[in-house]
Design a protein that fits this description.
Two copies of one chain form a homodimer.
Chain A lengths: L6 E4 L9 H10 L4 E5 H7 L1 H10 L3 E9 L6 H20 L4 E5 L10 H22 L2 E4 L16 H11 L5 E6 H4 L5 H8 L3 E6 L23 H10 L6 E3 L12 H15 L1
Parallel strand pairs in A: 1-2, 1-8, 2-3, 3-4, 4-5, 5-6, 6-7, 7-8
Amino acid sequence: MLDEKLLSIHQATVLQQWTLKQAIAGIERAGLGAISVWRDKLAEIGVGEAARALAGSGLAVTGLSFAGLITSRDKAAAAKARDEARRAFDDAAAIMAPSVVFVAGGVDPGDKDVKAARARALEGLAELVPHARALKIKIALEPLHPMICAHRSVLSTVKLANQWCDALKAEDVVGIAVDTYAVWWDPDLEESISRAGKRICAFHVSDWLVDTQDLRLDRGMMGDGVIDIPGIRRMVEKAGYAGYREVEIFSARNWWKREGDEVLSVVKERYQTAV
Amino acid sequence: MLDEKLLSIHQATVLQQWTLKQAIAGIERAGLGAISVWRDKLAEIGVGEAARALAGSGLAVTGLSFAGLITSRDKAAAAKARDEARRAFDDAAAIMAPSVVFVAGGVDPGDKDVKAARARALEGLAELVPHARALKIKIALEPLHPMICAHRSVLSTVKLANQWCDALKAEDVVGIAVDTYAVWWDPDLEESISRAGKRICAFHVSDWLVDTQDLRLDRGMMGDGVIDIPGIRRMVEKAGYAGYREVEIFSARNWWKREGDEVLSVVKERYQTAV
């Protein structure tokens, strides 16, 4: 049996069904104790009210998604994006989230240069470190699937996240989020996770459906796809991670269409059988 | 100016418009000299007639797509798949294609074990080598995009293709096909292509559209996406490749809906401006 106290519900899993307050109530109704927050949902009611609602609940806040998208080659646009990332860090601090998921940003169509986009993301990250450090918020570098490299994140592997951590020399502030959906295919995964070690500060789970129909919004419930999720969980645990397992399922065609209570009921069951 | 003699039209680019005979005529009408053959198109008229049509044309045959899908954990199914791959090699020999693209196959939902699927693909490949050697057909290992790892190919990177080549010790028979669409996102691409060196026996080009809508059939015309195709061409050339540039664009929503002649006219133009 996995410890249910370490099960956190990422709001993405019930993104279409529930506001933040409804999600808090729904997660408590399910007898669970942790939530990972989607930043757009904060904006709906204002971060102050959101912070009060979360603090007044019995739930632990395990993370905030997301900050980033800082790869533009336009200097003014990139500076603005970094400022927005700092505001996301502020939000994380306000809701007492220990970390913010960092989503790098895509390739700038103006130069079509993925290498340059990666360099800009790394440089921009270095500029964000002091603000995160001041707030005691961890920046969780999240490698995302190569299929969203063009428009969403040029950080495509755990290996590259390790290289960025090496370059940043800010281990107190910068960690790595491992998402099963994004990394399961990687031939170097075991080695890269082992090397990441204590850098791993978040672990997200969902499954890859064989008949996947969308590049972002067709994730599967754990057990419904082909990812060896327990295998990857064991890898991160062997590397030293002992934190929450966040269930993050973007699912426009299935889970977002169901009642939130039903979704959480299935999540609880699959947490024991397929995580 | 790139040498137009090295431009080969992969039948996938005009898959919905033209039969093999129509493609031969269309490519000749466009003033081009090379075709890469889609195996299902051979089956439509029989390999004998197809071979005669190709031999009777002025076109060079640069490759055959594809053989593979040998990752089943069911021994009988895997043996049957290997036999089918050998028949594909026979077809390649019949049409005087120098190589057959090898598409590994996906993850078996029965064990959800990508590592085991890779091991089975490699073992199966070893069994296919003698038949290819006898026919003097090259097996072109084609790393495919990680987004089709689950159902199509567990060979996800050029690095892994190099490792398979190392293990097979059959450099005379096994090479690597580099497809810009499949590998452009890879942080280790330059190093892996350099290591591949003379193993590279095919080079496929198409572009990644920022608003990609399908995991297999939404490739873009060179120049319409964010891949630095000339940059990758220079990498393979630096590694020693001097062969054909095959244009392979699966495009259900755009190019397959246009007249074949129009498609080839755009391909010819983009070959000079975006390859």
